[in-house]
Amino acid sequence: MSRLRLASFAFATATVLACLNAIAGEVVLYSSNTVDAINAATEEFNKKYPDIKITSVRGSTGAMMQRIKAEAGAPKADIFWSGGFSLLRLYEPYFVSYSSPEYANLSAGFRNANNLWAGTNAHVMVIMVNKRALKGDPMPKTWSDLANPRWKDRLIVSDPEKTSSSLATLWGIQQTLGDEPLKGIARNATVTSTASQVFDGVAKGEFAVGMTMEYAAQEYVAGGNKDIEVVYPSEGTFIAPEGMALVKGGPNPAEAKKFYDFLASKAAQEMLVKKFFRRPIRDDVDTTQVGLPKAGSFKAMSVDDVKLAADQPAFIKGWKEMTAAK
Fold first, then answer.
1. How do residues 236-277 score in pLDDT, each as one tens digit?
2. CA distances from residue 213 to 8, 116, 118, 231 in whole angstroms, order as listed
């Protein structure tokens, strides 16, 4: 082979390899989201980026955070999705700042001031009621109603130490209503380790009422379960954003930023509300098309994630003492 042909071959080979490297990629996603939501997000993302593979690892929010912390010396994850802002704040050193172009479209208060995380949707906390399981008792309309002894062993909540949405709700109740309603709820409640056991238990009629997320309860209503009613407590419900963050030192930072931008995009949030009733945090996405009431049509209070993060250890200790005393 002549020198000219050899040089041409080498150049062509290098060009092909460079192109392959340019279009091929991977994102390692750690997530506490549902398999269905992860698969749907991956499918939608790959319509735009077909050559980027999403490899997901699922576990509870707490377990994923501990794993990110343990791997900090040699990170394996690129991005985490989804967890409450107060929990993300506890693991702040393991995230990297990123100013997404999608931030301009997010509602106020749904991203970290230092751009270490941002919301993907908002969990509105509600009371999920199985009307058949009420057995003639009046439907609860407030958080305080759940402290009534009639709900003893008929109320289910998820463990606030393991579930950030439950932590935000129970802490919010204490902050706004005081210790007595919280003590009554602790006396009445069956505490479960996962959020899914709450809405599954109420849907099956094993429990009359549960404290859960709007989207989870709404899925049963939309699915035709006529026994289920969603109650937005009149004292005010709590809005707990579900967040995402880029892992510091992740192996695929460029690809991870693309997935991060996608999760904050209009396309992703429209898909998540249409398929899974996840309330968007963008002002340009309609919720009424799937039966979710407009923001502002019910009383809602945002959770101060800075204060919650600071209060969390003492609150969890107090909650455990309340549940042990019942």
1. 999 888 899 999 999 999 999 999 999 999 999 999 999 999
2. 61, 25, 19, 11
How crowded is residue 202: how many other Cβ atoms within 10 Å of its Cβ?
A: 29
Contact present, 131 and 227 (Cβ < 8 Å): yes
Verify that 231 and 281 share a domain, yes or no: no
Same domain, 130 and 111: no
**Res 24: pLDDT:** 64
> Do 244 and 38 touch, CB atoms closer than 8 A?
no
Cβ atoms 258, 195 nearer than 8 A: no
Amino acid at 72: A
Three-state DSSP state, 61: helix
Q: Are 115 and 97 in contact (CB under 8 A)?
A: yes
User: Does the pLDDT value for residue 19 go beyond 80?
Assistant: no
Cα separation of the two ends of the chain: 86
Q: Which one is predicted more confidently, 10 or 180?
A: 180
Give φ, ψ of 295 to 5 degrees: -60, 135
Instruction: Report the pLDDT value the prediction gives residue 39, as an integer from 0 to 100.
Output: 97
Average pLDDT, integer, range 207-222:
94
User: Domain residues for 184?
Assistant: 123-239+298-324
Q: Are residues 79 and 168 in the same domain?
A: no
Question: Do residues 157 and 209 both lie within one domain?
Answer: yes
CATH code at 25?
A: 3.40.190.10
My answer on whether 136 and 273 are in the same domain is no
